[in-house]
Write a structure and sequence with these properties.
- The structure is a single chain.
- The protein has 411 residues and is α/β, with parallel strands linked by helices.
- It folds into 3 domains: 4-78, Archaeosine Trna-guanine Transglycosylase, Chain: A, domain 4, CATH 2.30.130; 86-195, RNA methyltransferase domain (HRMD) like (Transcription Regulator spoIIAA); 217-407, Vaccinia Virus protein VP39 (Rossmann fold).
- 29% of the residues lie in helices and 29% in strands.
Length: 411
């Protein structure tokens, strides 16, 4: 990869960091925060490579510098210096592809190729939706080398198109300084409709231009498969349903009925389209269905007479920043309690959290506390975390968790 477009006449940017930051880098943590930088050889440019030296002037790490982010450096390589050149980038891509080798067959054409820091591409996500790739950036540090990175992905993966998505924190700078926009086509033609892909043999649409994340919630695939195995003969409530993925798995698994509950009319329209894509499956076609638009908390309170045999609670993040953690934990406990109140005897509750600011221990603790407070005897079936194409290699990356309970039949 040619990085001449970000080459400076000045020598390589050099950093020295706090003792705590040194220790974190040695232990594999990929971030250096601005306040941890003790010395900086010169002003840095967003996107250039910066080298961190330890207190004995030995190489510690090299990473992408972001002059405008609280995360000032995102490490690419630690321990020993290597030339960050075209061969290095190609090798880093191959490592990510190799981690996913054998995970998916031709019945699943939607999954994550690169999961940011956890695959050695800090702040960068690459998702596959059949022949479409979605490249999402969460740091402006990638923008100066975007053309070279995209060319590497195109050459190796041969997609029909590549769509650029930008995190909200990146969009303004991308437009003003790099003439890049969210939903820009980096390769190929814009899709005339949402992209359709396969997951476990089911067909789903992904709005790769405007949808949340990169167009679909790929990370819940394994939990959806669990729900399918639990669904036979059950009345299913999918709260915070979004586009109904859990419901489709439940219907194919033999659910007697599915109810999709979401506040967004746009999301519920997506439920209808996804079910329409799968009418060739007999179980899906014959499953009784309803969609309900409403706030899940309010609906669970206001419909005390309704009972379900399987309830999925998968809300959006209830803590988007650390200051919201305590309130989120209380909200999770309340939500699980409300769900338990709508369960029929022998029913199963699946509760999920996608907030990195609430740890697995805190979330599971809140759910267990709700079960204890409910007075309903319930057996904990299992807890789950990240799927294999969404590895979590450091604390802040561990956002996804779920817990499953079964209420006793004689209660």
């Amino acid at each position: 990869m040619n990085n001449e477009h970000i080459r400076e006449a000045a020598p390589r940017l050099k950093l020295r960091v706090s003792a705590a930051a040194e220790a974190a880098l040695r232990e594999g943590h990929p971030w250096v925060f601005a306040e941890a930088i003790r010395e900086q050889s010169r002003p840095g440019q967003t996107g250039e490579l910066a080298v961190v030296y330890d207190r004995k002037d030995r190489f510690l790490a090299v990473g992408l510098f972001d002059a405008d982010s609280p995360i000032r450096l995102r490490a690419l390589q630690t321990g020993r210096p290597e030339a960050i050149d075209a061969r290095w980038w190609a090798g880093r891509l191959e490592q990510a592809l190799e981690r996913r080798r054998g995970l998916f067959d031709d019945q699943t054409t939607g999954y994550r190729w690169i999961h940011g820091e956890n695959d050695g591409w800090p702040g960068l996500v690459l998702d596959r939706y059949d022949e479409t790739l979605v490249l999402k950036l969460y740091t402006a540090a990638w923008l100066p080398r975007l053309g070279e990175i995209a060319a590497l992905f195109i050459e190796r993966l041969r997609p029909e198109r590549v769509v650029l998505r930008l995190g909200r924190n990146v969009r303004e700078m991308a437009a003003e300084r790099f003439s890049r926009t969210d939903a820009e086509l980096l390769h190929g033609a814009a899709p005339s409709a949402p992209v359709v892909f396969l997951e476990s043999g089911l067909r789903f649409e992904a709005d790769v231009l405007r949808g949340q994340k990169t167009g679909f919630f790929l990370d819940q695939r394994e939990n959806r498969r669990r729900v399918e195995k639990m669904a036979r003969g059950r009345r299913v409530l999918n709260a915070f349903s979004y586009s109904g993925a859990f419901s489709l798995y439940a219907a194919r698994g033999g659910a007697s009925s599915v109810t999709d509950l979401d506040l967004s009319a746009h999301a519920l329209a997506g439920v209808e389209r996804n079910f329409a894509l799968n009418q060739g499956n007999g179980a899906v076609a014959s499953c009784a269905r309803e969609t309900v638009r409403g706030d899940a908390f309010e609906w669970l309170v206001g419909n005390a007479e309704r009972r379900f045999d399987l309830i999925i609670l998968d809300p959006p993040s209830l803590a988007k920043r650390q200051a919201e953690q305590a309130g989120a934990i209380r909200a999770y406990e309340r939500l699980v309690g409300l769900g338990l109140g709508r369960l029929a005897p022998g029913g199963i509750l699946a509760a999920c959290s996608c907030s990195a600011h609430v740890s697995a221990e805190q979330f599971f603790g809140a759910a267990r506390k709700a079960v204890a407070r409910s007075g309903r005897p319930a057996r904990e079936l299992e807890t789950t975390g990240h799927p294999p194409d969404h590895p979590a290699a450091f604390k802040e990356a561990r956002y996804l968790k779920a817990i499953f309970f079964e209420v006793r039949r004689d209660y």
